[in-house]
Amino acid sequence: MIRLTAGLVIFAYAAVTRDETWNFIGLGVYWLLDVVDGFLARRLDQETRIGAQLDILADRLLVAFFYLNYVTLYPQLIVPVAMFLFQFMGIDHYLSNQFMRWPIKSPNYFHQVDRGIWAWNWSPAGKLLNSAVVTAVLVLTKSAILGSIVCGAILVMKVWTAMRMARLPAPEDGWAAIPAPEHSATARSATAPTAEAPPSRTGRRRTASSGRAARYARPPRARARSSARR
Question: Where are the domains of the chain?
């Protein structure tokens, strides 16, 4: 929240004053606090999935604010800036949140799912390519043509990433295939009658339904053997 608040205040001041220097100060504060925040979260083992989602959202807000300020000063860059914001706030935002489908903490760990996608998008080199290179090209050259070529290449890479990610096997199927334990102490205690009092009619119905549930929780072979014995 500190990074988001500080960045928004500085970018808002830069927008009101139309001051390019303050716009770059805001970008520097954003990058610095992003690095510090990620380092402390990993070092203190404070990484969370909700924190990763908030981080992704903060990145989009602050980067968009910087580029909107920048394009008001250099309107000839509207095409590459629009291309970059389209892929960063749209396609890349969607891709960055796909880590939630797997039991990982953030996109930084997507190499556990697909190393190629991770390398092009969330590895240190991938992050540099997707953000700093675009900024450097637009700021240093102020060329709409060169900026459009770079942003177009990144856009193609994001589309390729989305297509490759769509072909990944659904992790939910793997979780559903994990067999439940055949019996547990809780199930046994729930189905066993107590010695103090005989079970009521309602209790017998619950016990019977629990027995059926336990029987269908068993693997198919166990159910087949049980039917053969009967």
Answer: 1-73, 77-170, 185-229
